[in-house]
Structures are given as C-alpha cells and as structure tokens.
Amino acid sequence: MMTRRLTAVGLPAALFVVLALVPLYAGVFDDRFVLLFATRILIFAIVAVSLDFILGYGEMVSFGHAAYIGLGAYAVGILAEHDVWAAWISFPLAMAVCALFALVTGAISLRTRGVYFIMITLAFGQMAYYTTTSLSAYGGDDGLTMWGRSELFGTGLFNGDTSFYYIVFGVLLASYLILKVMTRSRFGRVLEGAKQNEARMEAIGIDPYRYRLTAFVLAGTIAGLAGALMANQAEFVSPAYMSWHRSGELIVMVILGGMGHLHGAILGAIAYMVLEETLSGYTEHWRLIFGPLLILIVLYGKGGLLGAIRGR
Amino acid sequence: MSTTLLAVQTLNGLQLGILLFLIAAGLTLVFGVMDFINLAHGVQYMLGAYLAVAGYQLTGSFWLALIIGLALALFCGLVLEFLVFRRLYDRDHLDQVLATFGVILFLNEAVKVIWGAAPLSLPAPNLLDGAIPLVNNLQYPVYRLALIVSGLGVAALLYVLVTRTRVGMLVRAGATNPDMVAALGVNIRRLFMIVFGFGTMLAGFAGIMAAPILSVEPGMGDNLLILAFVVIVVGGIGSIRGAFLAALIIGLVDTLGRSFATDIAKLALPPAAANDVGPALASMLIYILMAAVLFFRPSGLFPVRSA
C-alpha cells in the first residue's frame, strides 16, 4: 500500500521535476536541439494526457483525436494570417473551436459503442482533415506558414526557446493536475463506474452519456490548446497535423506508457518520440524495427511502461 | 454534365465498390466471427499486388502472376496468423488495433526495402486489353469491365458459400454467437483459420485485380483499409450482405461525388468558392454518409449481433 501510493505520487512528481530541469541541461551542455525536441515532445504529451483521460477512464477509443491538434493550430495560424498575434485572443478561440467541434461530434459519436465509436470518431477526424485541405486561401494541402509567433501582452515569451518551453511545460502540468483532480472526484468515479457497468450506473439514477460527453469535450479542448502551441512551435500549420496516422500514433503513445494513469501518457509520448528519433537516426527504415517492437509490447508488455516500472 | 460522363463514372464507381467489397468481405467475416479487428487487412491487399508483380516479372504471364500472387498472399496471411494474430484473439480491441498497426508499419516498410518506394505496374493481360464501345459511342476498357464481372462473380460465390454450405452455416452461427458454436463441439480455431485464410485471399485478389489500373506502391492499402472499415461499419459488422450493399453505395457516392461535387456546388455558390468547396465536400461525402447512417442506426444497416 505504502509503495503503491509512493509510485502514484512520487513517479509523476519525479517526472515533472526532470522535465522542469531540461532547459538547465540544455543550457549547461549548450544543446539547443534537446530543448526544441523536448518542447515538441511535451506538446504531444499534452494531447496524449487528454486522450488518456477519455480512453483510460471512460473507455472512449477516439480515433480522431489528432483533429483537435489541427483545429487548434489552424485557429492560431488563420488569425496570424490576418495579423492577429495576441495569444489572449487566439488561444481561447482555438479552445472554443475545439470545444464546439467536440460537443457536436461527441454528441453524435457517443450514441455508438465499441468499434462503431472508433470508426465514427475517425470519420469526423477525416471530415476536419478534408475541410482544411480545401482552405485554398490558407494554403490548402500545402499548409500555412506563420511568419512569427503568438504574442503575450508584448512580453515575447513565445519567442525564447527556454521561455516557450516553460509555457508548454506549464500547460502540461496544469492539464495533468486538472484532469487528475477530475478523475479523483465524483465525476471521475461516474466515468469509471460507467466503464465497468453501465446498467448499474443507470440503475442508481445517473446518466453516463452526459458525463462521457463532458469528458469528451474537455479532452478535445485541451488537445486544441496543444494544437495552438504546436502552431507556434513549428511556425507552420498543415492538414497533416490531423491525418488518421497521427490519431493512431496518439493511441500508441497512451498504450505504450500505460493507460488510465495520465502520467503514463506523458511517459508514452516521451518514449514514442525518443524511440522514433533514435531509430530513425540508425536507419531510414526505422519502422522495420518499430513495427515488431510495437507488436511485442502489446503481446508481452501488459500495462505499458508503467506496468514495467511497477514490476508486474 | 453529359450522360456519357455519368455512365463512365457510374461504371468506375461500381468498380471501386467491387474492390471495396472484396476487401471488406474478409474484414467483416474476420471481425464478425472472431471479434478481431485486423488493421493489417489493407496490407494483404498491397501484398497481393506486389506478389503478383513479382510473379509477372518472373513468368511474364498475367495469369500465372495471378495464381502466384494469390498463393503467396494466402501463405503470408497464414504466416502472420500463426506468428501474431493467433495471440490476439482473446485480447481486447485496443490491443488488436495496436498490434496490427505494428504489422502495417513493418510490412509497408519491408515492401519499400524489397521493391523500392517508386510505384510499379502490372500490365493487363492481352486477352482483356483494349476497349469496347458501350452506349452512344462510349469506349470503356475491357479490363475494368472484367474486374467488375469477376468481383460480382466472387460476391455470388461468397453468397452461395455463406448461405448454402456447412462451413457457411458455421460462419453465420459464429458471427451471431461464437461461444455457443464452440460449445456445440465445433473446432472454432480451425474455423478461424479457414475464415481468415479466405479473407486474406479475397484481399489479395482485390490487390492483384487493382494492380493494372492503380499504381502498386507502399502504403497503397492504407486508404482502402479506411474505406473498407467505413463499408463494414455502414453495412453492419459481420454482415456479408451489408458489406456488399454498403461497398457499392460507398464506391458510387465517392466516385460520383468526386466528379460532380464541384458542378453541384456551383449551383449554390460563386464559382471560385465552389472550386474550393467541391473537392473537399467530395472527399468528405462518404464520412458524412457514415456519420448519418450511424446516427440513425448505431449498429449499421444490417446489424448481425443484437448487442
């Protein structure tokens, strides 16, 4: 019991401390690449955490979660194209767009279960994808280059490598804490209860649909915020952000880390991207190694990285 | 829009529908009977095409290439079943999606390593070369007609197999209640092997038939896989009849949508906007269709299991 509580609190805490120290490491060893790479990883970690919230706790296998990255990114990119750089306008707007998209698509998708849910979320993801390819005023297929980054009350915080890293880090930490608190609350218990036995949940007078939809919207909104950050990180937005391959990768990250713990998703995002970077450093055919590795992880690594750490 | 164009595009739509059916049939059977989501099914389609190209380079004959392609595709499918899939039948859907995603990554890359990233092609056989005139001096390639006919033939064969034979009866029973079938003393593992092997051959056959008209390249199965999933979800998972109807609907809607969406959009929008909206709308059409079907019938058009 004692050790379990230690890993439940200690591991995420240690993880965030290590992540907070990355800029220090980068500064000491003068390694700009590590800092930029870590920034990118943390943005994906935000999305993975939000996906784990609905996947691990609510059993909603969304195969269109990448759509929110794209929508958030496009909100920022399109505003920048019209010379609106203020983050206090573009970021809330990106989140609002994603919340609305999640509300509408979630309300329809959550009528279905299982594979049908997987496929209908994929369908909505594809619709968002094709919508952006048709925006010829904003680059269409080729994407849209941003000639700068968002501006936060004239501070230029988005432009510095280190300050931008800490913005992303702060968003990740806040998202993690908010979602963690929610999973521990009555809301989270309803979500998990509905996963285990929906009929019993309804029998005690709770309608799981509303809870699922709320969780779905929340996850979409957070992923949209990550998308807004990604637009700033890459200074470029393109439909490729929301391809179904990307949605698949996000699920892989969550499972790889160990789902249903939130910090597992962060570990998964780190592991996936470091693995991809390392393997592609050895050979351009890195998928030849990664594919079988993924199969082995699924077959023999129950519980993902977290399961391995706990030594089960 | 002219009637000739409409006729050609309708035939093209049918042809896409037939291809989709060949892939979706295996997918829906495997899913219906084994409750197994096989994302790697699209890779089987790709393997069929590549192995046929290899067979053609070896023998110089389309027909020999067809036989070689089919046999090797079946062999690859059974090897994969033995090595990987067999271990996944008892796992949840998420594990199945991930592991078969891994198979896709591996095989797409392996094909790239062996045959290179550049598209290959398989020439149509002399017998089916050329075009024949249809209505009002419309020329249509014989090969494409042959594809439609052979696809319909396979569909008919499948219908007879599923509704008139003992194995077919077991397959239908397995799709409805697999536990009961196993309890009645049927070797469910062997049934799985047969269904899986058959589905693999169908996907391989689709790949070989598509090779002369589409380019053979790594990842060629990915997009068709997504379309095939749309088909089986719209049709109702496990239902061959549903897959057939949904495949034709999806094939026709997608093809006709792509050729006429811009024109139709022009009726309501200024030309410049229509040129933007048209293609996007055309790409989205089948997904809108699927969302609409699932909204009204959350288990597809022909639900098999009343769960």
UniProtKB/TrEMBL annotation, chain A:
The keyword DNA damage does not apply. Keywords: Cell membrane, Membrane, Transmembrane, Transmembrane helix. The chain crosses the membrane at residues 36-55, 62-80, 86-108, 115-132, 163-179, 209-230, 250-275, 287-309. It holds the Pfam family BPD_transp_2. It is found in: Cell membrane. It is a multi-pass membrane protein. It comes from the Bacteria. GO terms for molecular function: branched-chain amino acid transmembrane transporter activity. The keyword Lipoprotein does not apply. This is Amino acid/amide ABC transporter membrane protein 2 (HAAT family).
Automatic annotation (TrEMBL), chain B:
Belongs to the binding-protein-dependent transport system permease family. LivHM subfamily. The keyword Transport applies. Pfam families: BPD_transp_2. GO terms for biological process: amino acid transport. It is a multi-pass membrane protein. InterPro entries: ABC_transp_permease, BCAA_transport_permease. One of its GO terms (molecular function) is transmembrane transporter activity. The chain crosses the membrane at residues 12-32, 62-85, 97-122, 142-162, 191-214, 226-256, 277-296. The keyword GTP-binding does not apply. GO terms for cellular component: plasma membrane. It is found in: Cell membrane. Keywords: Amino-acid transport, Cell membrane, Membrane, Transmembrane, Transmembrane helix, Transport. This is Amino acid/amide ABC transporter membrane protein 1 (HAAT family). Its main location: membrane.
